[in-house]
Amino acid sequence: MIFKKSELPNGIRVVTEFHPTNRAVSMGIWIEQGTRDESSEEAGLSHMIEHLVFKGTKTKSAYQIAKSLESLGGDLNAYTTKEYTCYHAHVLKEHWTQSLDVLSDLISHMKISQEEFELEKSVILQEIQMSDDQHEDLIFDRYYEEALKHPLGRPILGTKESISQMKLGSVRKAYESLYCGRRIIVSAAGNIDHGDFVAMVEKLLGSKKAGKPPVRKAKPKHQPVFCAVEKPIEQLHLLLGLPCSSFKDSFRFEAFIVNALLGGGMTSKLYQKIREKRGLTYSIYSSLHTYIDFGLIHVSASCEPKNMKKVVQLICSEFDRLKKSSVKTSDLEMFKTQVTGNLLLGADDLENRMSSIAINEMVFGKYKSPDEIINQISKVSRQSIGFFIEKYFDLKKMGIFLMGAQATEFNLKELIHGQKR
């Protein structure tokens, strides 16, 4: 793998990773514009733009956009996150110029009528309604809203009110001002020449205005959540949360290891103790959510209401055990090997590498190779894990959200703080 980076006069950063034996190219155009950059009135704006660009451009209809790469056997898609929007494609190496042309067209020449805008608002409102029925996802959105009280905590889709009141003129203005050079990263991984790629990016996007880089709002603060929402469903869903390391935190890799150990898979402590040994729940896992300046670690589970108290007790006892005893050397080595293996397997995936080099540019402003990451993981020790746990596993900061059957019948503070510490 050979990494190269260039920057155009208008601020667009171009990063590539050359994989000479691969027959494909994965590429993406990344806009540093996400949910956290929106005001409450604009909630859902970034996601709305992502939808609208696929409705048509000045040179292509919606069908022609869909056909452009699909007809070649390639893939074209996009997604919005809390910190950026990504338009990406995966094609055979001989089709990379068509791919870049389509992606560049999407972020430069959106064409949308008032009628199409209203139709797409209706689609997104239905998407919001659908998300309300996906309880495992909904509980995450609700937790973020309650715990952060910050733009980073808002749902990516926006709200029914913000979408209903959104105006096409405001969306067009945002598209023209935010999709600018200083907010754009173009990345590619695969069998592609960096110089040829940069020349094509400059031809297609070199005339874009430089604009202004994103100015992130103040770092969010996590407030312990104690919320219960009754839902007419049989299962009771649980989400426990603690503030954790950000992308830039010195304990980032310790967080990876602890998350894997805690609830990252079938060999994790929570899965073995709560599902395998006691059969209290079908689903239980932990997840690490990292952002530029903030992070959360969650434990998610669903079970019958009668089992919830015991499930929470066992989760809290595992947090306590980690707090008091850190990790065994044998566990540390096993989960370091697991995380390293996942990383190496991911390094063989072009889409993963395309994303990785773009996100590292966005967050760190530099390249981080798989070997460099593996070297950092290898340095994680029982001592550094202990420092990480001491810094972040303050159970007084833990929040809890219950959603589902009999949710409001529990004393939430007693549920997580009632055990002897």
Molecular structure report:
The protein is α+β, with helices and mostly antiparallel strands and 421 residues long. 43% of the residues are buried. The mean pLDDT is 94. It folds into 2 domains: 2-205, 2-Layer Sandwich (Cytochrome Bc1 Complex, Chain A, domain 1), CATH 3.30.830.10; 226-417, 2-Layer Sandwich (Cytochrome Bc1 Complex, Chain A, domain 1). It has a 6-stranded mixed beta sheet, sandwiched between helices. β4 (75-80) and β5 form a beta hairpin. α9 crosses α12, α10 runs antiparallel to α11 and α12 (329-347) runs antiparallel to α14 (370-378). It has 16 helices and 11 strands. The N and C termini lie far apart (50 Å).
Relevant terms:
Cytochrome Bc1 Complex, Chain A, domain 1, alpha+beta, 6-stranded mixed beta sheet, 5-stranded mixed beta sheet, 11 strands, 16 helices, 421 residues, single chain, 18% strand
